[in-house]
């Protein structure tokens, strides 16, 4: 009799333990996560006026001027082969040249690229092989050159478009 | 004398009548008293033994699934894309186990590096842990979301998801994930 009571007590105790151990309930939610392709590029502002003011006697190439007061930043998650192209709103007249140089830590800079004749239909690559991620505050350097034979140029506004693309 | 005899007989007769009435009254009252006593004692009883128990009850439910969490933009120069949030769902619980019950959360599988899913569970019966990163929380490493939940019910508490990604992690096609909320001791 005593043995039976002890056995029953042990069974009851173990039952309590099991009940205590599994005392829980669950609820689930299904989530859909997605990250779209993102391309972002911006510049810090506009460069100073590029005005040629001097030259060297005997040389048709006037002394060029440069500006590296601005930067660009990019963010992209598309691929590791993304590039930046550059173009003007309209080509420059003959005898004037504008080159652009974009520094890069996430891709390969093409160095100084002459964009004098690069328009939207003929944009030129200035940085290639850009890896996914962000590249902030990279320097933009403009160099403006002119020939004396091209004559003077009144203040002319030009628009340079930088495009981050695959 | 006759008058007196008559008078004496009359007195005796009246006395006997009084006695008879008195006895009748006593008998009547006795019967009534007995009936009254019998009425007071007219009862019966029965008993039942009732066994009562309340088992441990744990219940948790959600109102449904959140909307898709899709990152669509970022800031040029920042690797951290613009995160997105959803607070359109809620959870409800009922438990009678103790005052130290908690809710844990986990995913069916960890997220890849560069993607972060945070979860916040509001609570009025316990202490919310606030925004908790569950990106790497799986069934064997569930993380506490709400602790010290008191016995009782807590209905329609807001569930907030925040999904973040870095640009360097790349794009992510629609990925179904299951979040499990567990009410446990």
Please, could you describe this protein's structure?
The complex is a heterodimer of chains A (166) and B (185). By secondary structure, chain A is mainly β. Chain A has one helix and ten strands; from the N terminus they run αββββββββββ. Chain A has one helix spanning 2-21, and strands spanning 24-35, 39-43, 65-76, 82-88, 96-102, 108-109, 112-114, 124-130, 133-146, 160-165. In chain A, strands 2-3-9-5-7 form a five-stranded antiparallel sheet, with no helix packed on it. In chain A, strands 6-8-4-10 form a four-stranded antiparallel sheet, with no helix packed on it. The longest helix of chain A has 20 residues, at 2-21. Chain A is elongated and about 95 Å long. Chain A starts with a helix and ends with a strand. Residues 4-19 of chain A have low confidence and may be disordered. In chain B, the strands form two sheets. Chain B has a five-stranded antiparallel sheet, with no helix packed on it. Chain B has a four-stranded antiparallel sheet with strand order 6-8-4-10, with no helix packed on it. By secondary structure, chain B is of the alpha+beta class. In chain B, 21% of the residues lie in helices and 39% in strands.
